[in-house]
Design goal:
binds NADP nicotinamide-adenine-dinucleotide phosphate; six-stranded mixed beta sheet; binds magnesium ion; Aldehyde Dehydrogenase, Chain A, domain 2; Aldehyde Dehydrogenase, Chain A, domain 1; alpha/beta; 488 residues
Length: 488
């Protein structure tokens, strides 16, 4: 690609990308997206798409499938590599737009935008991996092998909270393994989705191979799930919607993958490196205003360290920078929208009514921005709502424990199983945590959030359904295995 193209100012069209064309919703309807840090500021007007837009996208994807799946994997990979270069050249623009539309602090938005490029590159590399295994037939010694094939058209439904990384880690494996895609991004983060589609277009993705639809979940998601030409649905979002999606799609014979919420514990042993544990608790609970599926919700501290941890943690909260997410120093920005703000404030009130004590925070701290102060609870009962249900905001609870057995048991006493951390300098303690903690992603001496691109990511228990995402695990979901008995 000539440098002049990369340097030209980007003109994103606030439109769907369907069969290689940028198009408004067929109905002509649009919606306004506002900046959660300044709700009077309109970020843009985007298509409020519906069934006919989904149908056009699925038809486009179905038509493109034969050509794309027959394209050598290395050529498919080349498209991802070019798109990664485009994303890298626009990290600042993508990050600024992400911050403006969904309020992620710029420092984290930059990392996420760059991560999308890394995800594209990782999956481009996967194109060179074997697609099957070779055997011989037991009776004759003739050729016997397995081959992995793409599924067809896949529907991808993504949330607003990682608007670059999650669409990227679904789209990249889907494409590199030869599927065609209809991607529905969240209404709260259309711009970031548009950047990804634009990067793929500029990277040379053929018409119809990648389709992007913007619109409300029920209006776009439902027809996508029901469309007979959609072979599989990969969904990331809440448990409630995820289960709805699964229950709708599985009777129709579709393959389903769900990545859902979490209620992630952090265990701090008395032998922990206190400074690192405090930092991890802060980052895990409050960065991105706690709007991560892997955010720390419960912090268990061993009794002899409890008071000291509490004191240092409160100091850290006091010193943390809360405010405008566009300021690169800001650690905690706003909640994504007014609805989430209301939900989080209500959950805090409920937490108090249930007997929890607010140690710090607990309220909105700006008249305009949907900003809630980092909030720490104490004295929350193990069976109270705050100990069990995901509150998608900067709210965490502190618990005192005595023995490792007790900590592991209480950490596991939720229906979720996404991520978990322990801070300890004792190897045997770490090993017991690794053996016994019920979660899909475990951290020893690091925070509960964070996901490398080249290893599987996903939850167990109620946090997930179907094969995990990312790394080599993605092959499981986006391909099917065929066994071939081949005699001469
Ligand atoms: P959500 O409300 O479940 O929405 C997720 C996606 O589903 C959005 O695109 C949404 O569309 C769409 N949707 C809504 N109703 C639908 C329906 N009836 N049929 C089909 N699609 C529908 O979740 P969210 O509030 O965006 O995200 C936060 C949740 O995601 C949290 O629970 C978090 O823990 C979870 N999450 C999990 C992971 C993970 O990997 N495990 C990662 C990140 C987030 P619109 O919003 O555009 O209407
Ligand atoms: Mg939602």
């Amino acid at each position: 690609m000539p440098d002049s193209v990369l340097e030209a100012p980007l003109q994103l069209k606030p439109a769907n990308y369907v069969a290689g064309k940028w198009k408004p919703a067929r109905s002509g309807r649009t919606y306004e997206k506002r900046n959660p840090a300044r709700p009077t500021e309109i970020v843009g007007e985007f298509p409020a798409s519906g069934e006919e837009d989904v149908n056009a996208a699925v038809e486009g994807a179905a038509k493109a499938f034969a050509g794309w799946s027959a394209t050598p994997a290395a050529r498919r990979a080349a498209v991802l590599m070019s798109a990664a270069d485009v994303i890298d050249s626009r990290v600042e623009e993508i990050a600024a737009d992400m911050t403006r539309e969904m309020g992620k602090p710029l420092r984290e938005a930059r990392l996420e935008a760059a991560r999308a490029a890394a995800i594209f590159r990782f999956f481009a590399g996967e194109a060179w991996r074997p697609k099957g295994e070779m055997f011989e037939q037991s009776m004759t010694g003739s050729t016997l092998y397995t081959v992995r094939r793409p599924l067809g058209v896949v529907g991808l439904i993504t949330p607003w909270n990682f608007p670059a990384a999650i669409p990227a880690w679904k789209t990249a494996p889907a494409l590199v393994y030869g599927n065609t895609v209809v991607l529905k991004v969240a209404q709260d983060a259309p711009l970031t989705g548009l950047h990804l589609a634009a990067a793929l277009e500029e990277g040379g993705v053929p018409d119809g191979v990648l389709n992007l639809i913007i619109g409300r979940g029920s209006d776009v998601g439902t027809p996508l799930i029901r469309h007979p030409k959609v072979a599989a649905i990969s969904f990331t979002g809440s448990v409630a919607v995820g289960h709805l999606v699964r229950d709708e799609a599985t009777p129709l014979g579709k393959r389903v993958q769900l990545e859902l919420g979490g209620h992630n514990p952090l265990i701090v042993m008395a032998d922990a490196d206190l400074a690192r544990a405090v930092e991890a608790a802060y980052a895990g609970a409050f960065w991105s205003a706690g709007q991560k599926c892997t955010a720390t919700r419960r912090i268990y501290v061993q009794a002899t360290l409890y008071d000291e941890f509490r004191r240092r943690f409160l100091e850290r909260i006091e010193g943390g920078k809360v405010g405008d997410p566009a300021d690169p120093e800001t650690e905690v920005g706003p909640l994504v929208n007014e609805h989430q703000l209301k939900d989080v404030l209500e959950a805090i009130e409920r937490g108090k009514r249930d007997g929890g004590k607010v140690v710090v925070g607990g309220e909105r701290v700006d008249e305009d921005a949907y900003l809630v102060a980092p909030t720490l609870f104490e004295d929350v009962a193990d069976d109270a709502m705050l100990s069990r249900e995901e509150v998608f905001g900067p709210v965490a609870s502190l618990y005192r424990f005595h023995t490792l057995d007790e900590a592991l048991e209480r950490a596991n006493a939720v229906e979720y199983g996404l991520s978990a951390s322990i801070f300890t300098t004792n190897l045997a303690t770490a090993q017991r945590f690794v053996n016994e903690l019920e979660a899909g992603v475990l951290h020893v001496n690091s925070q509960t959030a964070g996901a490398d691109v080249h290893v599987p990511f996903g939850g167990i228990k109620r946090s997930g359904f179907g094969p995990h995402e990312q790394g080599r695990a993605a092959l499981e979901f986006y391909t099917e295995v065929v066994t071939v008995y081949q005699d001469a």
